[in-house]
Design brief:
Elements lengths: L2 E6 L4 H11 L5 E8 L3 H10 L4 E4 L5 H7 L6 E4 L1 H8 L5 E4 L7 H9 L3 E4 L2 H18 L2 E4 L2 H10 L7 E8 L9 H5 L3 H4 L9 H9 L1 H13 L7 E5 L5 E7 L4 E5 L5 H9 L13 H4 L14 H11 L3 H17 L5 H13 L9 H19 L6
Parallel strand pairs: 1-2, 1-5, 2-3, 3-4, 5-6, 6-7, 8-9
Antiparallel strand pairs: 8-10, 10-11
Helix pairs in contact: 2-3, 4-5, 5-6, 6-11, 6-15, 10-15, 11-14, 15-16, 15-17, 16-17
Bound molecules: NADPH dihydro-nicotinamide-adenine-dinucleotide phosphate.
Length: 387
């Protein structure tokens, strides 16, 4: 039976992986909405290929380009943040939420409020507005399927078991490309070096987050929201080969792990087909060829991001949203070569330290706090003596 799907963030890395799976299973899917920020011609090309009903750019100034690129088709074109949310709210069987950053929060919320099934890759939405998003899911009767590879692995390891039987969640981390460097060497890491992840091919922001380990910090918060086992029962373990995508330890000390190639098409396929399984065009995992799987404790002296994220979720309220916003601004500054690598985490920590406790009650509260934290982060960027 054909199912309907909308893809928020279609022109990104998760978007490409999702569309590749759909390409290999065309008869199973009717594409409703495809969205981007401003990659209008790439979006139009995808909308044409997948015969989407509507294509939307978040940045309204890119709408004329989108319209021109869709001329001669009956694909609707729209632009702006309201249009993005309207498209996300269209009733579909599955929404893949793959916009990067807190910019994905409002469209993801719109999909949630429409009561559908959401495959969530956009971790920043859950980090910034975890409790609010979860209440909305409950209210709307929506379902969330974790798409981030670690959380998808945990979800798979939990299948058929009860969360109350869980003793510990073990979130694995590759450790990024710089895990063996010294503190001094880290200071001179370049943008090009940081954009080369050893195992995964991803968008720029998450690749930098992986190098600083902030990605694992955000994932720690994400795991806390998705799997309520208690913060003290979520551990991070460095596993440089990225073959085990995470593990769950039960009360009887039995540990279940999910393994697979380092390719996001695996967790995305698990969401698209859930609760069934589907074919993927991937080569099977060859453990004999990989040879060994190794593990080490994270080095929080060198990579403090996981400690900072833990402190943010322990502080609660808007602290995770503040951390996320500050990190987004710092990563952007690093990508624009305005600051060095180690200043990314320092800026995020500095903004978080100035945070005055507050309890956001609505998504609008979170978005206001997010905007304020971005302003703080921009001000902190002007302090050259910070690290
Ligand atoms: P990319 O940067 O590759 O793609 C981001 C997508 O979001 C693009 O379609 C982009 O459009 C769109 N976008 C960016 N900013 C806005 C905005 N302000 N409004 C509307 N749309 C916007 O990111 P990834 O695919 O790597 O990551 C997407 C999400 O998935 C992130 O939250 C990431 O943490 C998560 N994730 C990614 C993984 C991966 O392997 N890539 C793994 C696990 C999680 P445009 O092209 O026009 O800029």
């Amino acid at each position: 039976m054909t199912r309907t799907i909308s893809l928020l963030g279609a022109t990104g890395s998760i978007g490409a992986s999702t569309l590749d799976l759909i390409r290999h299973n065309r008869a199973d899917w009717q594409v409703e909405a495809l969205t981007a920020n401003c990659s209008a011609s790439a979006l139009a090309q995808l909308a044409r290929e997948f015969d989407a009903r509507i294509a939307v750019v978040g940045d309204e100034s890119c709408l004329p380009e989108l319209r021109a690129a869709l001329e001669g088709t009956d694909i609707e074109a729209a632009g702006g943040s309201a249009a993005l949310c309207e498209a996300a709210a269209r009733p579909v069987d599955m929404t893949v939420a793959a916009i990067v950053g807190c910019a994905g929060l409002a469209p993801t919320m719109a999909a949630v409020e429409a009561g559908g099934t959401i495959a969530l890759a956009n971790k920043e939405a859950l980090v910034s507005a975890g409790d609010i998003l979860k209440s909305a899911i409950e209210r709307a009767g929506a379902s969330l399927l974790p798409t981030d590879s670690e959380h998808n692995a945990i979800f798979q390891c939990l299948a058929g078991n009860k969360v109350r039987e869980v003793r510990r969640i073990i979130l694995t981390a590759s450790g990024g490309p710089f895990r063996t460097l010294s503190a001094d060497q880290l200071k001179s890491v370049t943008r090009e070096q940081a954009l080369k992840h050893p195992n995964w091919d991803m968008g720029a922001k998450i690749t930098i987050d992986s190098a600083t380990m902030m990605n694992k910090g955000l994932e720690f918060i994400e795991a806390h929201h998705l799997f309520p086992v208690g913060l003290e029962n979520i551990d991070i373990l460095v596993h440089p080969q990225s073959i085990i995508h995470s593990m769950v330890e039960y009360r009887d000390r039995s540990v279940l792990a999910q393994l697979g190639p380092s390719d996001m098409r695996v967790p995305i396929a698990s969401c698209l087909a859930y609760p069934e399984r589907m074919e993927t065009p991937l080569t099977p995992l060859d453990l004999a060829m990989i040879g060994e799987l190794t593990f080490e404790a994270p080095n929080e002296e060198l990579f403090p991001a996981t400690r900072i994220a833990r402190e943010a979720i322990e502080a609660g309220g808007a602290a995770p949203a503040v951390l996320n916003a500050a990190n987004e601004i710092a990563v952007e500054a690093f990508l624009n070569e305005r600051i060095g690598f180690t200043r990314i985490t320092a800026v995020a920590e500095s903004v978080l330290a100035r945070y005055m406790p507050s309890q956001p009650a609505t998504m609008e509260d979170v978005l206001a706090i997010d905007a304020e934290a971005r302003d703080h982060a921009r001000a902190v960027l002007e302090i050259p003596t910070l690290v």
